[in-house]
Specification:
Order of helices and strands: HHHHHEE
Largest sheet: 2 strands, antiparallel
Number of domains: 1
Helix content: 40-55%
Radius of gyration: 17 Å
Number of helices: 5
Shape: globular
Structural class: mainly alpha
Distance between the termini: 25 Å
Length: 177
Amino acid sequence: MQKTATFSNEDTIWYEIEMLRYCYSFYASTGSGSEDQRNRYVHLECFLLHYRNLVACFSGKHHRQGDIDFSNVAEWSSRPVPSSDEVSAVMQSAATLDDEYYRDLSQFLAHVTSRRRDAKKWSVKIMNERMEGVIKLFSQSFPSTLRLCPDERASEVSLDSASTATFQVYPSPWSNG
């Protein structure tokens, strides 16, 4: 899959949302056979990774230079900046998720730690429902123009040149193009 050159900062966030939703959908619809179980683990980890990215983005609590998150919306937004009340609503909703999940997500996913040998139960359905509430707030200020699509040349792409996504960006009402 390939990224196009017209990917905006807002599209980057929507990409994370689309991947979170895809992984959740796949995870939720997969059975429990041995091959299915491996697929469930892969999609669970992907769901948790995109969840962690979105929690950090929306809460703005882990900002580092170059990050696209809600601690610095005015720096990255290509659209009119939402009101401080709208930004605060997103940040406050996400802060609860951050407080509850970010540390565990980081320890179980971002690093090889001794905690990973312990069984961790993730309430995926509840986590997803709560994140969808934050996404709804985000989408009020930043409606999506991103549409992920299959790479028609997938059979031509080698594993040595894989990227993270193929998508189409539709003209935004905020752009001149």
